[in-house]
Design a protein that fits this description.
Layout (H helix, E strand, L loop, with lengths): L1 H14 L9 H8 L4 H6 L5 H5 L6 E11 L3 E12 L7 E2 L2 E2 L3 E14 L4 E17 L4 H6 L8 E2 L1 H6 L12 E3 L9 H5 L4 E18 L7 E20 L5 E4 L12 E3 L14 E2 L7 E18 L2 E16 L5 E14 L3 E12 L8 E12 L4 H6 L3 E15 L12 E3 L5 E3 L10 E14 L4 E17 L15 E22 L2 E19 L18 H7 L10 E3 L2 E2 L3 H6 L4 E2 H13 L1
Parallel strand pairs: 8-11
Antiparallel strand pairs: 1-2, 2-5, 3-4, 5-6, 6-9, 7-8, 9-10, 10-13, 10-14, 11-12, 14-15, 15-16, 16-17, 17-18, 18-19, 19-22, 20-21, 22-23, 23-24, 24-25, 26-27, 26-28
Helix pairs in contact: 1-2
C-alpha cells in the first residue's frame, strides 16, 4: 500500500542523508486516511492488479472425433475448438475491441487406402485456423513497474464537476491519468486505449504416404515414399492505432485565478477527438507466410531367421523451406541403418548419415556421420537365469558415433556481398569463409539397465562423454588492418562428460491400483578447450578452460539460452563466499560481452 511504500522510501532517503526529500507525517497520513475526495486522488493508494485484472482467465475447449471404414478404406476425422480469454479488464465497444483473446479451430482428416495386399496409400490433412486479438500496447510492463502512490488510476467524472477545465469548460466524463513521476506508463490508461490488432492465421499440414511391400522380390523388403507440404499464413484483418489524451491535475493551481489545474500530455491534440480510423483487410501490415516441402524415399528390410533378426534401412530426404519472398532454404541427406540381434541377447546397430547444408561451399557442403552401438542382454543367458532368478533384466550397452551441426548466425558462410541498410547506405557484408564446414561432436555412452523382482525395482546408469570440434563461432582475433570481420569460422572445441542415474519402484497391489516412485540424479562437467581467444589477453578474458556458461553459449551460437550476469575471479567462477570476499572488484561478464562486440565494431 502507499503508506508503507512512502514510509520505506523515507527510510531509504534517510540512509542516503537526503533529509530534504522526506515525506512529512501529515502527508503520510493522507496516503493512509485521505481527508477529502480530492486528496484521495492527490495522495493515491492504487492496487493496480485490482484495477486492470480479473480474478482468473477463462479457457474452453471441445473436440469431436469420428472413425470408421471398410477393408478398402479407413478414415479418421477430428474437429476441435479452443478459446483462451485473458485476465485483463479489456473493453469492447462496437468495432473497438482491446481485449486479449484467441479463437482456435483445428481439424484433421486421415484416410488409409488398402489398394492391394501389398500396397497401402495414406493421406493425412490437418490444420489450425486462429483468430487472435490484442490491445495495441501490452499493460504488462506498466503493471509490474508502477508504484501505488504516484498517481491515480484515472480521474472520475465528478472531478471535472468540482474542478473545471478552463480551456474546455464544457468537458465532462472520466479522464485518464498521466504517468508523471514514473518510468513506465499508467497501466489503466494503457489498457483502456482503443488501439487493438486482430490477426487471422492459418496452418495446413498434408502428408501423402505410399508403402509397397516387395516380398515377391525378397521377403521382408518394402519401399516407402512420403511427400509432405505445410503452409502458414497470417494477416492483420483489423487494426486501430489511436491514443486518448491523458491528464495531470495540478492541485496547487486549484482556485488560482487565471491558472488551469488541468495539464494535457499533448497540447496540440484538440479535446474534440477525431473519428476512429479502423483499417480492414490487412492495410498497413505485411502478411507473414511460409511453406515447407519435404519428401523422402526409403527402402526397408526386416527378416528373422530362427534366432537371428536383421533389419536395414536406406533413406533419402530433401527439404525446401520458402519464407515470404526470400530465397528458399534447402537441405538434404542420405541415411543408412543396419541392425542385428541373436536370440534377443546380442545386439548390434550401425548407422551412417551423409547430410548436406546450403551454408557451406560446394566442396564442403556434405558431412559424413557414422555411429555404432552394441548391447548384451545378460539376463537372457541361461547361466545367469540359474544364478539370479530374481533379476529379470540385466543389459549392458555401448554406443559411439559422430553427429553434426551447421548452425550459424549467418546463412551462407562462403559468400559475401554489399547491401543497403535501413538508412539507405551501401554497406559491406562480413567477409566470407570458403573453408567453413560441419561442426562435429564425437559422442560415447556406456549404459547399464537392471530390473529386479519382475521389474518392481528398475535401475539404469549412463556414463557419457562428448568432444565437440570445429565449432562455428564468430572470430574474435581479426586484426584491425583487415577493416572488417568474418562470418563464422570453425574455431571452437569443447568437451563434456558425466553420468545419469535413474531408479524406479513400481508396485501393483491390486489389478486396479498401481503406484510408483521415481528418482533421477545426474552430474556433468563441460569445459571449453579452444575459443579463438586473444593471445595476450588476461586469463579472465579468455574462455578456454572455463565451463560453457550461458554467456559462452551465446558466443558459440547455441540457440534458446539467455545471457546472465555472472562474475569471475582471476581463476574462474565464484564457488564460495571466500571467493567473493577475496575479490572485491569482480569482473562483470555482461560488460565483458559488450566490450567484445565494441572491439569488433572498431
Amino acid at each position: 500500500d502507499s503508506y508503507t511504500t512512502m514510509s520505506m522510501l523515507n527510510v531509504a532517503r534517510m540512509n542516503e542523508q537526503q533529509f530534504n526529500l522526506l515525506t512529512p507525517d501529515n502527508i503520510l497520513n493522507e496516503y493512509r486516511n485521505p481527508s477529502t475526495a480530492l486528496n484521495a486522488l492527490r495522495y493515491p493508494n492504487v492496487n493496480w492488479f485490482d484495477e486492470v485484472t480479473k480474478p482468473f482467465a477463462p479457457m474452453f475447449n471441445a473436440n469431436f472425433n469420428i472413425t470408421g471404414g471398410t477393408e478398402f478404406v479407413k478414415y479418421f476425422l477430428s474437429l476441435g475448438y479452443e478459446y483462451q480469454g485473458d485476465f485483463f479488464k479489456g473493453q469492447k465497444d462496437g468495432y473497438i475491441d482491446n481485449r486479449y483473446y484467441n479463437h482456435k479451430f483445428n481439424y484433421r482428416i486421415n484416410v488409409d487406402f488398402t489398394l492391394s495386399k501389398t500396397t497401402k496409400l495414406s493421406l493425412n490433412v490437418g490444420g489450425v485456423i486462429k483468430a487472435k486479438n490484442n490491445p495495441g500496447r501490452s499493460p504488462w510492463r506498466n503493471l509490474y513497474s508502477t508504484g501505488p502512490a504516484r498517481y491515480p488510476a484515472y480521474f472520475p467524472a465528478w472531478v471535472l464537476d468540482m474542478v473545471p477545465d478552463t480551456d474546455y469548460p464544457d468537458a465532462t466524463g472520466v479522464r485518464f491519468a498521466q504517468n508523471f513521476g514514473e518510468y513506465s506508463g499508467n497501466p489503466y490508461t494503457t489498457l483502456h486505449q482503443p488501439s487493438f490488432n486482430r490477426d487471422l492465421g492459418s496452418k495446413l499440414f498434408t502428408d501423402l504416404i505410399l508403402n509397397q511391400k516387395l516380398d515377391n522380390i525378397l521377403e521382408g523388403l518394402s519401399v516407402n515414399g512420403k511427400v509432405s507440404l505445410s503452409t502458414y499464413y497470417e494477416n492483420r484483418i483489423l487494426q486501430l492505432s489511436y491514443s486518448y489524451p491523458d491528464y495531470q491535475l495540478l492541485f496547487d493551481n486549484i482556485g488560482v485565478p487565471g491558472a488551469n489545474p488541468w495539464f494535457r500530455s499533448n497540447d496540440v491534440m484538440d479535446f474534440h477527438l477525431q473519428p476512429y480510423d479502423i483499417n480492414v483487410g490487412g492495410l498497413n501490415t505485411d502478411p507473414i507466410y511460409y511453406s515447407d516441402l519435404y519428401y523422402e524415399l526409403a527402402l526397408n528390410y526386416n527378416k528373422s531367421f530362427g534366432k537371428h533378426t536383421v533389419s536395414g534401412l536406406a533413406l533419402f530426404n530433401r527439404q525446401q523451406k520458402n519464407k515470404e519472398t526470400s530465397f528458399p532454404y534447402y537441405n538434404e541427406g542420405l541415411v543408412g541403418r543396419a541392425t542385428y540381434d541373436y536370440n534377443k541377447k546380442y545386439l548390434l546397430e550401425l548407422n551412417v548419415g551423409y547430410t548436406g547444408s546450403e551454408r557451406f561451399a560446394p566442396d564442403k557442403r556434405f558431412g559424413f556421420f557414422p555411429s555404432a552401438a552394441v548391447g548384451w542382454v545378460i539376463s537372457e543367458e541361461q547361466f545367469f537365469k540359474n544364478a539370479a532368478p530374481w533379476v529379470n533384466k540385466l543389459k549392458v550397452r555401448y554406443s559411439d558415433g559422430l553427429v553434426g551441426s551447421d548452425y550459424a548466425k549467418n546463412r551462407w558462410l562462403y559468400t559475401s556481398s554489399y547491401y543497403k541498410d535501413d538508412r539507405g547506405y551501401i554497406r559491406e557484408d562480413l567477409g566470407p569463409n570458403i573453408y567453413a564446414q560441419w561442426e562435429t561432436a564425437h559422442k560415447r555412452d556406456l549404459g547399464l539397465e537392471l530390473g529386479l523382482f519382475k521389474n518392481v525395482l528398475t535401475f539404469s546408469i549412463d556414463f557419457f562423454d562428448e568432444y565437440r570440434d570445429k565449432m562455428l563461432v564468430t572470430p574474435r582475433t581479426v586484426t584491425m588492418l583487415v577493416g572488417n570481420s568474418y562470418k563464422e569460422k570453425n574455431l571452437g572445441s569443447l568437451k563434456k562428460h558425466g553420468f545419469e542415474i535413474e531408479t524406479e519402484f513400481r508396485k501393483s497391489p491390486t489389478p486396479d491400483f498401481e503406484y510408483f516412485v521415481k528418482g533421477l540424479f545426474g552430474f556433468n562437467e563441460n569445459r571449453v578447450i579452444f575459443k579463438d581467444d586473444p593471445k595476450y589477453a588476461p586469463d579472465y578474458w579468455k574462455l578456454a578452460g572455463k565451463p560453457l556458461t550461458d554467456l559462452l553459449s551465446v558466443e558459440f551460437g547455441i540457440e534458446g539460452l539467455e545471457m546472465n550476469q555472472v562474475q569471475l575471479t582471476d581463476s574462474g567462477y565464484f564457488t564460495s563466499v571466500d571467493d567473493i570476499q577475496n575479490n572485491p572488484a569482480p569482473i562483470d561478464v555482461t560488460k565483458l560481452y559488450f566490450s567484445y562486440y565494441k572491439f569488433l565494431d572498431s
